[in-house]
Amino acid sequence: MHSPDIHVRSVGTALPGPAVDNAALARRFRMPSAWEQWIDAFVGTRRRHFAIDLDTGEIRHTPADLGEQAGRRALEAAGIGPGDVDLMVMGTSSPEMLMPATVNVIADRLGIDGIPAYQLQSGCTGAFQALDVAHQMLSTGRHRTALVLGTESCAKHFDVTADVAALPPAEQINGVLFGDGAGAAVLSTEPGPDPVVLRHVFCTLVGLGRPPGQIVEWFGRADRHSQRPPVVEDYKAIEESVPGLAADVLAELLDHLDWKEDEIDYLLPPQLSGVMTARITARLDVPNAHEVSCVTETGNTGNALPFFQLERALPRMIAGDRAVGISVESSKWIKAGLGLEKV
């Protein structure tokens, strides 16, 4: 039996609060002007959005809040209602709580019930993993329409009272790299008025014997006074590994789809930071493709980022255009990719 084409019907995104630029971040944490220049030169991310009030420490937006906004916008853009969704899958590295699953809270708020709903916990490839699960389940013909989400918030780990100058670089980097946000896409076996087909999506664990590139702790009552840092990033390991893994993903995508590099119209590269994205894009060397990046304006929003890229790419694609998306998860090393075609 022939599997149906899986179409990306729409995308919706959400960002919390006003944008925080590097100058505002340096002022808030009383860092010297050289720190702002360091962010510009070595990180390359200009702005990000936080779900927390940097002055008071109050959490203003939760992962469920952001996911609900993005999901509602995706449903409205697809011209469908909650009753049309028969599958939900979400990827996140920062669930609102351990239980109930954030995807189920979002479903409840959107008025969705009586369907399979899955939450995948993963770093930057979680959105690809969610798209992969939805794509496979839709391909069986048992489901018609899936709402796929990625939502992130670092507010739980953000200490506005911290002496940033005294923190080691592995902790400092997180405050400038990451931002909060959410994204959602409607996938369907039924094409919309402007059909884009998700031709292929894959995720592969490649972390055997490799130390984590990022660790995010989860503290409970018993260890809430632990002195372990909540988030640690081995930025050097990521710098060394991600470009090569991204090149592997591109090669695997092209081989599976039987596409050539000069047939790629849009490239959605990994979005760790502005500087890293530029380095990865140069390594991929797809000269005819238009790069679709947003990390310099949004910060690294983890599993939300691919949806921001899709939101920018889809309206620009015309019949026959092809796009590839690439992601690398550095906590325990996963590589992921997807291929899209406008038909």
TrEMBL record:
Keyword check for Cytoplasm: yes
Entries under Pfam families matching the protein: ACP_syn_III
Boundaries of every Beta-ketoacyl-[acyl-carrier-protein] synthase III N-terminal domain copy: 120-190
Molecular function per GO: 3-oxoacyl-[acyl-carrier-protein] synthase activity
Keyword ATP-binding: no
Keyword terms of this UniProt record: Cytoplasm
GO BP of this protein: fatty acid biosynthetic process; secondary metabolite biosynthetic process
Cited InterPro entries: ACP_syn_III_N, Thiolase-like
PANTHER family: 3-OXOACYL-[ACYL-CARRIER-PROTEIN] SYNTHASE 3, BETA-KETOACYL-[ACYL-CARRIER-PROTEIN] SYNTHASE III
Protein name as catalogued: 3-oxoacyl-[acyl-carrier-protein] synthase III
Organism: Streptomyces sulfonofaciens
Lineage per the UniProt record: Bacteria, Bacillati, Actinomycetota, Actinomycetes, Kitasatosporales
